[in-house]
Specification:
- The protein is mostly helical.
- The chain is 75% helix and 0% strand.
- The longest helix is centred in the last third of the chain and has 31 residues.
- The two termini are 16 Å apart.
- 26% of the residues are buried.
Protein backbone atom coordinates (compact mmCIF):
# COMPACT_ATOMS: atom_id res chain seq x y z
CA UNK A 1 0.00 0.00 0.00
CA UNK A 2 0.91 3.63 -0.20
CA UNK A 3 0.75 4.94 3.35
CA UNK A 4 1.49 8.31 4.86
CA UNK A 5 5.04 7.23 5.64
CA UNK A 6 5.62 6.03 2.08
CA UNK A 7 4.37 9.33 0.73
CA UNK A 8 6.62 11.20 3.14
CA UNK A 9 9.66 9.09 2.27
CA UNK A 10 9.10 9.53 -1.47
CA UNK A 11 8.82 13.30 -1.12
CA UNK A 12 11.77 13.58 1.28
CA UNK A 13 13.92 11.50 -1.08
CA UNK A 14 12.81 13.58 -4.06
CA UNK A 15 13.67 16.80 -2.26
CA UNK A 16 17.06 15.43 -1.19
CA UNK A 17 17.98 14.25 -4.68
CA UNK A 18 16.56 17.31 -6.40
CA UNK A 19 14.04 15.35 -8.48
CA UNK A 20 11.16 17.29 -6.96
CA UNK A 21 11.41 20.92 -7.91
CA UNK A 22 9.07 23.66 -6.60
CA UNK A 23 7.29 23.90 -9.96
CA UNK A 24 6.29 20.21 -9.58
CA UNK A 25 4.70 20.56 -6.12
CA UNK A 26 1.15 20.96 -7.41
CA UNK A 27 1.44 17.94 -9.70
CA UNK A 28 2.90 15.87 -6.88
CA UNK A 29 0.13 16.85 -4.48
CA UNK A 30 -2.54 16.07 -7.09
CA UNK A 31 -0.98 12.64 -7.65
CA UNK A 32 -0.98 11.99 -3.91
CA UNK A 33 -4.61 13.08 -3.63
CA UNK A 34 -5.52 10.68 -6.43
CA UNK A 35 -3.59 7.86 -4.71
CA UNK A 36 -5.20 8.71 -1.35
CA UNK A 37 -8.68 8.54 -2.88
CA UNK A 38 -7.94 5.20 -4.52
CA UNK A 39 -6.53 3.61 -1.37
CA UNK A 40 -9.26 5.09 0.82
CA UNK A 41 -11.98 3.79 -1.52
CA UNK A 42 -10.57 0.26 -1.41
CA UNK A 43 -10.21 0.27 2.37
CA UNK A 44 -13.67 1.78 2.85
CA UNK A 45 -15.22 -0.89 0.64
CA UNK A 46 -13.59 -3.70 2.58
CA UNK A 47 -14.39 -2.08 5.93
CA UNK A 48 -18.01 -1.42 4.99
CA UNK A 49 -18.56 -5.02 3.89
CA UNK A 50 -16.80 -6.37 6.97
CA UNK A 51 -19.01 -4.35 9.31
CA UNK A 52 -22.13 -5.62 7.52
CA UNK A 53 -20.88 -9.24 7.59
CA UNK A 54 -20.35 -9.02 11.34
CA UNK A 55 -24.02 -8.13 11.74
CA UNK A 56 -23.98 -4.41 12.32
CA UNK A 57 -26.33 -2.13 10.45
CA UNK A 58 -25.74 0.04 7.44
CA UNK A 59 -25.51 3.16 9.62
CA UNK A 60 -22.61 1.70 11.62
CA UNK A 61 -20.96 0.54 8.40
CA UNK A 62 -21.33 4.00 6.89
CA UNK A 63 -19.90 5.69 10.01
CA UNK A 64 -16.90 3.38 10.10
CA UNK A 65 -16.44 3.71 6.35
CA UNK A 66 -16.44 7.50 6.58
CA UNK A 67 -13.92 7.38 9.43
CA UNK A 68 -11.66 5.06 7.45
CA UNK A 69 -11.90 7.30 4.40
CA UNK A 70 -10.96 10.44 6.32
CA UNK A 71 -8.08 8.78 8.18
CA UNK A 72 -6.53 7.24 5.09
CA UNK A 73 -7.04 10.18 2.74
CA UNK A 74 -5.78 12.79 5.19
CA UNK A 75 -2.75 10.74 6.26
CA UNK A 76 -1.56 10.10 2.70
CA UNK A 77 -2.00 13.73 1.66
CA UNK A 78 -0.30 15.00 4.83
CA UNK A 79 2.51 12.51 4.28
CA UNK A 80 3.26 14.24 1.00
CA UNK A 81 2.50 17.83 1.99
CA UNK A 82 4.35 18.11 5.29
CA UNK A 83 7.83 17.52 3.84
CA UNK A 84 7.07 20.10 1.15
CA UNK A 85 5.91 22.57 3.78
CA UNK A 86 8.96 21.92 5.94
CA UNK A 87 11.21 22.42 2.92
CA UNK A 88 9.47 25.66 2.01
CA UNK A 89 9.88 27.11 5.53
CA UNK A 90 13.52 25.96 5.56
CA UNK A 91 13.17 23.14 8.07
CA UNK A 92 14.64 19.72 7.41
CA UNK A 93 11.92 17.81 5.48
CA UNK A 94 13.04 14.54 7.08
CA UNK A 95 11.44 15.73 10.33
CA UNK A 96 8.02 15.48 8.68
CA UNK A 97 8.04 11.66 8.68
CA UNK A 98 7.87 11.12 12.45
CA UNK A 99 5.46 14.04 12.81
CA UNK A 100 2.51 12.04 11.45
CA UNK A 101 3.32 8.52 12.56
CA UNK A 102 0.49 6.61 14.18
CA UNK A 103 1.06 3.76 16.59
CA UNK A 104 -0.95 0.58 16.15
Amino acid sequence: THSHSQAAVLVIRGLATGTIAPHRYVRLILNEIRMALLIATIIVSVGFIRVLVFGYGALAAAAIGLSLFIIVAVSVVLGACLPLLFHRIRLDPSHAGPTIQVRD
